Amino acid sequence: MEKRRKSTAPSSSSSSKKRDGEDNAHSHDTLHQPTSPLLCVIVFAVLIRYLVSLHPYSGAADPPKYGDYEAQRHWMEITLNLPAKDWYRNSTSNDLTYWGLDYPPLTAYQSYVHARFLEFFDPESVALVTSRGHESPLGKFLMRLTVLSSDLVIFFPAALWFVFAYYGGRSRIGREELLWHLSLVLLNPGLILIDHGHFQYNCISLGLTVAAVAAIFVEKDLVGSFLFCLALNHKQMSAYYAPAFFSYLLGKCFKHQNPILKVTKLGLVVLGTFLLIWWPYVYPLKGAMEVLRRLAPFERGIYEDYVANFWCTTSILIKWKRLYSMQFLKLLSFSMTLLSVLPSMVQQIRSPSRQGFLFAMLNSSLSFYLFSFQVHEKTILLPLLPGSLLALDEPLMFQWFMNYALFSMFPLLRRDQLLIPYVALYVLFVLLYYCPFRKQDTSGRGSVNGWKTSVMALFLLCSLLLHLIYLTLKPPEKYPFLFEAMIMLLCFSQFVFLAIYSNVKQWTLPSRFTWIEKKKVL
């Protein structure tokens, strides 16, 4: 009997391995189908970006300070013409009150590379001081081209890598579903409108973050840590994801044979990457402190404009800036952010998983958006990214999130005269979401019934009415920002609901997604 029991065990194990091999082979073959549909998706995504770039940008023909377009151009001017030690220092050639550089050194290096490109074709566009407000047709074309090239070099490959890494070990995922998900990531209306319309380079930091996730999913944790450190050093708002990365990697380390060695390796990669990027400012220490002061502009207050987060929304009833000191608000903001992100971190430390990691990124970035200090409308792009990475797992959640993420930025995009691309991209998103080639969802994740449908329809009707009111009516003179406040209240309520749903979802993930079962060999 004992011999028989021993002889049958390998058979069961081998059959299990065979099934796993067949599933992996199926996913591998799915990802390597003929490339023409994939190429069409990529070309179409590039075309959409180009068409959006033909519209106005932030601060177009609006002196004296213009807008984000001028800020990015000015950073190219500064990094090209001044030594690195003077990039963050106030001087006669670098007036920090005129769009002073307020992002980490990697943004400065990126600006320098792009400045070299502009200098070759249009030197006047990056000439020191005299180029302020430069808006020649050639200069605008070159600036738009730098964003598009950054997208193609960083964000597009990262999105492809993520799809390969996330679905490479999952069975029964069809080619149409993969292309549908990739299309949603590449044709994210919010990212396209802000980067190629309003004008920024979010595609770099977000692309590096997606690449870091993909690297971690293929068990390249050190590479993933390096890439995420690059994202942090490009835009400090990438720290919105830091709790998720920290908790997931720490949870994996605890399951490792030698957790101390694993943690040490990760720590050395992080320290080495930061040291490499900050090297021009490490000595003397005064240089590093000058940069850090530029990265944390607390003097602007706890909120600006009408952002759909906790501080701005509750300021209707509680005048935070008037009643409380800056020091108290910083402490309160930090405490609320930490408390709101803590449950998600605990879950990943206890039971790290791929899907749980993506939910942790969503929960962490939403917590920062809702409760952290100095949040802008455009910051909603950070939680929207992991939402898009979960689009195939949670299609309805992503659709709902996209609706209100776009709506929360509507006043900003309207001021930038981007109404036409806003409507066009929203319609494109709806068409893509309900694409007939998308495999129908039979799990109930992408549909709702009964009273839930009525509630969602009511909220959508409210957003549609507010769109029309904002475009056609003038607010009362006594309350000039009444409509912005109404949009803010509606979007804030939906973001809070999404945060609650996402946290609950993370804690109730099926056990089959746990990393422990995926990597028992450790």
TrEMBL record:
Any single Gene Ontology cellular-component annotation: endoplasmic reticulum membrane
Q: Tell me where it mainly resides.
A: endoplasmic reticulum
The molecular function terms of the Gene Ontology recorded here are: dolichyl pyrophosphate Man9GlcNAc2 alpha-1,3-glucosyltransferase activity
Q: Which InterPro entries match?
A: Glyco_trans_ALG6/ALG8
Highest taxon above the source species = Eukaryota
Question: What are its E.C. numbers?
Answer: 2.4.1.-
One of its Pfam families is Alg6_Alg8
Biased amino acid composition, Basic and acidic residues: 17-30
Q: Does the keyword tRNA processing apply?
A: no
Swiss-Prot/TrEMBL keywords: Endoplasmic reticulum, Glycosyltransferase, Membrane, Transferase, Transmembrane, Transmembrane helix
Which compartment or compartments is the protein found in? Endoplasmic reticulum membrane
Annotated membrane topology is: Multi-pass membrane protein
Pathway participation: Protein modification; protein glycosylation
Enzyme class, top EC level, equals transferase
List residues traversing the bilayer.
Answer: 141-166, 178-194, 201-218, 266-283, 328-346, 358-376, 418-434, 454-473, 485-504
Q: Is ATP-binding tagged as a keyword?
A: no
Q: Where is this region: Disordered?
A: 1-30
Cross-referenced PANTHER family, in alphabetical order? DOLICHYL GLYCOSYLTRANSFERASE, DOLICHYL PYROPHOSPHATE MAN9GLCNAC2 ALPHA-1,3-GLUCOSYLTRANSFERASE
Similarity comment: Belongs to the ALG6/ALG8 glucosyltransferase family.
User: Can you name this protein?
Assistant: Alpha-1,3-glucosyltransferase
